[in-house]
Amino acid sequence: MAYNKLNEEETRVIVNKGTERSFTGKFWNHKEEGMYTCRQCNADLFPSDAKFDSGTGWPSFDDAVDGAVTELPDADGRCVEIVCANCGGHLGHVFRGERMTSKSTRHCVNSISLDFVASR
Questions:
Q1: 12 phi and psi, to 5 degrees?
Q2: Looking at the domain assignment, is residue 3 inside a domain?
Q3: Which H or E run includes 9?
Q4: What is the CATH number of the domain that holds 106?
Q5: What is the pTM of this model?
Q6: Which of 38, 41, 84, 108 is catalytic?
Q7: 2 falls within a domain
C-alpha cells in the first residue's frame, strides 16, 4: 500500500513513535468542523465533535471512529499507545478515568500525526 511521503519530523513521530512538544502542533487549538485523518494513510480517525480542550497542549478526543484506532501497551509498560488501525502509524496515547469529559477518555494525539478534512 502506498502511503503519503513524510518529512523528517513526521517520520520521527509517526514511524519512530516520537512525541511533538506540547502547544506547538497545528491542531492543538484547532476548532473547525470536520474529520481528523491519519497523516500517513488518510484514514478517518477522529470526528471534530469528539475534540475537547484538555489543557495539555495536544489535540484531545474523547472518541474515535469505530475501528480506526488500535491500542497497544506502551514500551514503558505505564501508558497505552494508540496507532492508526489502517497503517500502524503512531498517534499518541489514550488515558482513561481522568473525568475530563462524560466519556472519561482522552486520546492524546500528536498534531503531526494528523491531517484534517473540513466539513462541506
A1: -60, -40
A2: no
A3: helix 8-10
A4: 2.170.150.20
A5: 0.93
A6: 108
A7: no
32 part of a folded domain: yes
In whole angstroms, what is the distance from residue 98 CA to residue 34 CA?
Answer: 26
pLDDT tens-place string over residues 25-73: 999 899 999 999 999 999 999 999 999 999 999 999 999 999 999 999 8
Taking the CB of residue 114, how many other CB atoms lie within 10 A of it? 25
Is-catalytic flag, 41? no
The total domain count for the chain is: 1
pLDDT band at 1 (very low <50, low <70, confident <90, very high): low
Q: How far is CA 30 from the centre of its chain?
A: 13
Q: pLDDT digits over 96-111, tens only? A: 988 988 898 999 999 9
Determine the residue type at 91: L
In a domain, residue 1? The reply is: no
